[in-house]
Write a structure and sequence with these properties.
With about 190 residues, the protein is α/β, with parallel strands linked by helices. It has a single domain, classed as FAD/NAD(P)-binding domain, CATH 3.50.50. It is about 35% helix and about 25% strand. The chain has five helices and twelve strands. The protein is globular, with a radius of gyration of 16 Å. The structure holds flavin-adenine dinucleotide. The site of flavin-adenine dinucleotide has 35 residues, from helix 1, strand 2, strand 3 and helix 4. InterPro entries: FAD/NAD-bd_sf, FAD/NAD-binding_dom, Ferredoxin-NADP_redctase_2. One of its GO terms (molecular function) is oxidoreductase activity.
Length: about 190
Protein backbone atom coordinates (compact mmCIF):
# COMPACT_ATOMS: atom_id res chain seq x y z
CA UNK A 1 0.00 0.00 0.00
CA UNK A 2 1.21 3.49 -0.79
CA UNK A 3 2.61 5.14 2.31
CA UNK A 4 2.80 8.90 2.84
CA UNK A 5 4.82 10.34 5.70
CA UNK A 6 4.04 13.89 6.79
CA UNK A 7 6.59 15.76 8.90
CA UNK A 8 4.86 18.44 10.97
CA UNK A 9 1.37 18.57 12.41
CA UNK A 10 0.29 22.19 11.95
CA UNK A 11 -2.40 23.24 9.47
CA UNK A 12 -0.22 22.32 6.44
CA UNK A 13 0.74 18.84 7.59
CA UNK A 14 -2.64 17.83 8.98
CA UNK A 15 -4.44 19.12 5.89
CA UNK A 16 -2.17 17.01 3.65
CA UNK A 17 -2.73 13.98 5.90
CA UNK A 18 -6.49 14.47 5.89
CA UNK A 19 -6.68 14.39 2.09
CA UNK A 20 -4.29 11.48 1.52
CA UNK A 21 -5.70 9.17 4.20
CA UNK A 22 -9.31 10.03 3.37
CA UNK A 23 -8.62 8.97 -0.21
CA UNK A 24 -7.01 5.65 0.54
CA UNK A 25 -3.29 6.28 1.10
CA UNK A 26 -1.76 5.05 4.34
CA UNK A 27 -0.58 8.22 6.08
CA UNK A 28 1.66 8.79 9.10
CA UNK A 29 2.29 12.16 10.77
CA UNK A 30 5.22 12.96 13.07
CA UNK A 31 4.90 16.20 15.02
CA UNK A 32 6.79 17.94 17.81
CA UNK A 33 3.80 20.18 18.65
CA UNK A 34 5.59 23.51 18.36
CA UNK A 35 3.00 24.81 15.93
CA UNK A 36 2.35 28.52 15.95
CA UNK A 37 -1.35 27.68 16.20
CA UNK A 38 -0.90 27.45 19.96
CA UNK A 39 -0.15 31.20 19.92
CA UNK A 40 -2.93 32.21 17.55
CA UNK A 41 -6.57 33.14 17.76
CA UNK A 42 -8.36 32.79 14.44
CA UNK A 43 -10.68 35.48 13.14
CA UNK A 44 -9.55 35.07 9.53
CA UNK A 45 -9.96 31.38 8.72
CA UNK A 46 -12.95 31.29 6.33
CA UNK A 47 -15.91 29.50 7.83
CA UNK A 48 -14.55 29.85 11.38
CA UNK A 49 -16.05 32.87 13.08
CA UNK A 50 -13.69 33.15 16.05
CA UNK A 51 -11.67 30.30 17.53
CA UNK A 52 -8.65 29.76 19.73
CA UNK A 53 -5.77 28.25 17.73
CA UNK A 54 -5.30 25.29 20.06
CA UNK A 55 -9.02 24.50 19.93
CA UNK A 56 -8.86 24.63 16.12
CA UNK A 57 -5.95 22.22 16.19
CA UNK A 58 -7.80 19.85 18.54
CA UNK A 59 -10.67 19.64 16.06
CA UNK A 60 -8.30 19.13 13.14
CA UNK A 61 -6.46 16.36 15.01
CA UNK A 62 -9.74 14.60 15.80
CA UNK A 63 -10.73 14.97 12.15
CA UNK A 64 -7.58 13.29 10.80
CA UNK A 65 -7.72 10.63 13.51
CA UNK A 66 -11.30 9.80 12.53
CA UNK A 67 -10.11 8.93 9.02
CA UNK A 68 -7.37 6.68 10.42
CA UNK A 69 -4.21 8.78 10.14
CA UNK A 70 -1.41 7.35 12.29
CA UNK A 71 -0.41 10.45 14.25
CA UNK A 72 2.73 10.44 16.41
CA UNK A 73 2.90 13.45 18.73
CA UNK A 74 6.18 14.43 20.33
CA UNK A 75 8.29 12.44 17.84
CA UNK A 76 10.93 14.43 15.98
CA UNK A 77 12.07 13.50 12.50
CA UNK A 78 15.86 13.85 12.39
CA UNK A 79 16.50 12.88 8.78
CA UNK A 80 14.74 12.29 5.47
CA UNK A 81 16.75 10.58 2.74
CA UNK A 82 15.80 9.61 -0.80
CA UNK A 83 16.13 5.92 -1.74
CA UNK A 84 15.74 4.10 -5.08
CA UNK A 85 11.98 3.79 -4.63
CA UNK A 86 10.98 6.43 -2.08
CA UNK A 87 12.25 7.79 1.20
CA UNK A 88 13.66 6.72 4.53
CA UNK A 89 12.48 8.85 7.43
CA UNK A 90 14.47 8.66 10.66
CA UNK A 91 12.77 9.16 14.02
CA UNK A 92 15.04 8.44 16.99
CA UNK A 93 16.48 4.96 16.44
CA UNK A 94 13.69 3.98 14.02
CA UNK A 95 13.64 4.20 10.24
CA UNK A 96 10.35 4.38 8.34
CA UNK A 97 9.87 3.82 4.61
CA UNK A 98 7.61 6.08 2.56
CA UNK A 99 6.64 6.44 -1.08
CA UNK A 100 6.03 10.17 -0.63
CA UNK A 101 7.13 12.71 1.97
CA UNK A 102 5.33 15.94 2.80
CA UNK A 103 7.49 18.40 4.73
CA UNK A 104 5.34 20.78 6.81
CA UNK A 105 7.79 21.95 9.45
CA UNK A 106 6.77 25.59 9.67
CA UNK A 107 9.62 28.07 9.33
CA UNK A 108 12.22 25.32 9.88
CA UNK A 109 13.66 24.21 6.54
CA UNK A 110 16.53 21.99 7.76
CA UNK A 111 15.09 18.69 6.51
CA UNK A 112 14.46 20.11 3.05
CA UNK A 113 18.04 21.32 2.92
CA UNK A 114 19.56 18.00 4.02
CA UNK A 115 17.32 16.11 1.57
CA UNK A 116 18.83 18.19 -1.22
CA UNK A 117 15.76 20.21 -2.23
CA UNK A 118 16.55 23.29 -4.29
CA UNK A 119 16.03 26.66 -2.61
CA UNK A 120 15.02 30.04 -3.96
CA UNK A 121 16.88 32.32 -1.57
CA UNK A 122 15.80 31.26 1.93
CA UNK A 123 12.68 29.46 0.73
CA UNK A 124 12.23 25.90 -0.44
CA UNK A 125 11.56 26.07 -4.17
CA UNK A 126 8.23 24.44 -5.06
CA UNK A 127 5.78 24.56 -7.94
CA UNK A 128 2.01 25.09 -7.55
CA UNK A 129 1.60 21.43 -6.63
CA UNK A 130 4.04 21.98 -3.73
CA UNK A 131 6.45 19.40 -5.11
CA UNK A 132 10.13 20.19 -4.51
CA UNK A 133 13.00 19.53 -6.90
CA UNK A 134 13.22 16.06 -5.32
CA UNK A 135 10.56 13.90 -6.99
CA UNK A 136 7.97 12.69 -4.51
CA UNK A 137 9.01 15.17 -1.81
CA UNK A 138 6.68 18.09 -1.09
CA UNK A 139 7.18 21.24 0.99
CA UNK A 140 4.20 23.14 2.33
CA UNK A 141 3.17 26.04 4.53
CA UNK A 142 5.43 28.57 6.20
CA UNK A 143 8.61 26.85 4.93
CA UNK A 144 7.89 27.82 1.33
CA UNK A 145 6.65 31.35 1.97
CA UNK A 146 8.38 34.60 2.85
CA UNK A 147 5.34 36.48 4.11
CA UNK A 148 2.04 34.67 3.57
CA UNK A 149 2.10 33.07 7.00
CA UNK A 150 -1.57 32.31 7.51
CA UNK A 151 -3.22 29.10 8.66
CA UNK A 152 -5.61 28.91 5.72
CA UNK A 153 -2.75 29.26 3.22
CA UNK A 154 -0.77 26.50 4.93
CA UNK A 155 -3.85 24.26 4.93
CA UNK A 156 -4.32 24.97 1.22
CA UNK A 157 -0.70 24.11 0.49
CA UNK A 158 -1.10 20.79 2.30
CA UNK A 159 -4.24 19.99 0.33
CA UNK A 160 -2.50 20.85 -2.96
CA UNK A 161 0.39 18.52 -2.16
CA UNK A 162 -1.99 15.71 -1.22
CA UNK A 163 -4.08 16.07 -4.37
CA UNK A 164 -0.94 15.98 -6.50
CA UNK A 165 0.16 12.77 -4.78
CA UNK A 166 -3.33 11.31 -5.30
CA UNK A 167 -3.34 12.34 -8.98
CA UNK A 168 0.05 10.67 -9.46
CA UNK A 169 -1.13 7.50 -7.75
CA UNK A 170 -4.46 7.32 -9.59
CA UNK A 171 -3.01 8.30 -12.97
CA UNK A 172 -5.51 11.09 -13.59
CA UNK A 173 -6.39 14.51 -12.20
CA UNK A 174 -8.02 13.77 -8.90
CA UNK A 175 -10.61 15.79 -6.99
CA UNK A 176 -11.86 15.04 -3.51
CA UNK A 177 -15.49 16.05 -3.98
CA UNK A 178 -18.26 15.00 -1.61
CA UNK A 179 -21.97 15.78 -1.94
CA UNK A 180 -24.78 16.02 0.63
CA UNK A 181 -25.77 12.39 0.05
CA UNK A 182 -22.30 11.37 1.28
CA UNK A 183 -22.94 13.12 4.59
CA UNK A 184 -26.36 11.48 4.86
CA UNK A 185 -24.74 8.11 4.23
CA UNK A 186 -21.94 8.64 6.78
CA UNK A 187 -24.07 10.18 9.48
CA UNK A 188 -26.87 7.74 8.74
CA UNK A 189 -24.46 4.87 9.39
CA UNK A 190 -23.29 6.53 12.60
CA UNK A 191 -26.87 7.10 13.70
CA UNK A 192 -27.67 3.42 13.01
CA UNK A 193 -24.80 2.39 15.32
CA UNK A 194 -26.15 4.42 18.24
C1 LIG B 1 1.32 35.05 17.69
C2 LIG B 1 0.82 34.44 16.39
C3 LIG B 1 -0.49 34.69 16.01
C4 LIG B 1 -0.97 34.19 14.80
N1 LIG B 1 -2.25 34.49 14.42
C5 LIG B 1 -2.73 34.01 13.27
C6 LIG B 1 -4.04 34.30 12.85
O1 LIG B 1 -4.78 35.04 13.53
N2 LIG B 1 -4.48 33.79 11.68
C7 LIG B 1 -3.70 32.98 10.88
O2 LIG B 1 -4.15 32.55 9.84
N3 LIG B 1 -2.45 32.69 11.26
C8 LIG B 1 -1.95 33.19 12.42
N4 LIG B 1 -0.67 32.90 12.79
C9 LIG B 1 0.17 32.14 11.84
C10 LIG B 1 -0.18 30.63 11.84
O3 LIG B 1 -0.09 30.12 13.16
C11 LIG B 1 0.79 29.94 10.88
O4 LIG B 1 0.62 30.50 9.59
C12 LIG B 1 0.52 28.46 10.79
O5 LIG B 1 0.60 27.83 12.05
C13 LIG B 1 1.56 27.84 9.85
O6 LIG B 1 1.21 26.49 9.67
P1 LIG B 1 2.29 25.43 9.21
O7 LIG B 1 1.55 24.13 9.21
O8 LIG B 1 2.95 25.87 7.99
O9 LIG B 1 3.42 25.42 10.34
P2 LIG B 1 3.29 25.25 11.93
O10 LIG B 1 1.90 25.54 12.38
O11 LIG B 1 4.39 26.05 12.51
O12 LIG B 1 3.52 23.70 12.17
C14 LIG B 1 4.78 23.09 11.99
C15 LIG B 1 4.83 21.87 12.88
O13 LIG B 1 5.95 21.05 12.50
C16 LIG B 1 6.56 20.56 13.68
N5 LIG B 1 7.93 20.17 13.35
C17 LIG B 1 8.95 20.98 12.96
N6 LIG B 1 10.06 20.25 12.72
C18 LIG B 1 9.73 18.96 12.99
C19 LIG B 1 10.45 17.72 12.92
N7 LIG B 1 11.75 17.70 12.55
N8 LIG B 1 9.82 16.58 13.25
C20 LIG B 1 8.51 16.61 13.62
N9 LIG B 1 7.76 17.75 13.70
C21 LIG B 1 8.38 18.90 13.38
C22 LIG B 1 6.45 21.71 14.66
O14 LIG B 1 6.61 21.29 16.00
C23 LIG B 1 5.03 22.21 14.37
O15 LIG B 1 4.07 21.54 15.16
C24 LIG B 1 -0.15 33.39 13.99
C25 LIG B 1 1.16 33.09 14.40
C26 LIG B 1 1.63 33.63 15.57
C27 LIG B 1 3.05 33.32 15.98
Amino acid sequence: MTHVIVVGGGPAGLSAALFTQKNGLETTVFDTDKTWMHKAHLFNYPGIGSQDGTAFLDTLRRQVDSFGVERHQGEKVTDVAATDDGFTVTVGDDEHEADYVVLATGANRDLAESLGCEFDGDLVDVDVTMETSVEGAYATGAMVRAEEWQAVISAGDGAAAALNILSTEKGENYHDFDVPADADRVFGELADEE
